[in-house]
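This section describes the prediction task in plain terms. A model, or a person checking by hand, is given the sequence of a single protein chain and must write out its three-dimensional structure as a string of tokens. No templates, partner chains or ligands are provided. The sample shown here is typical of the held-out split.
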Amino acid sequence: MTNSQSNQLPELPVNGRVLAKAALAPAIPARIEKGKLSISIDAGLNWQQIKTPDDVVSARFLDPLNGEIDTKSKRRYRTNDGGKTWNGN
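The expected answer:
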């Protein structure tokens, strides 16, 4: 990659600071119905419900394994195994 190409990549802000420029992967579609989370790995043709520790209000998945949810109880959880386990803060 040339310098001119790397300057065209979007900035990746973390906690208000730009740490790197990166090519962003397309997100995995997620939907929430009555607090239940489903994701699709085939652009919405099929949906798989994911078990979560609480009712979900928002979700973001970078790929089928790595995602983050915000819950009704105002907690944020992350998974790196497709929702088999969740780590919260």
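For orientation: Strands lie at 11-14, 17-21, 30-33, 36-39, 48-50, 56-61, 67-71, 76-79, 87-88.
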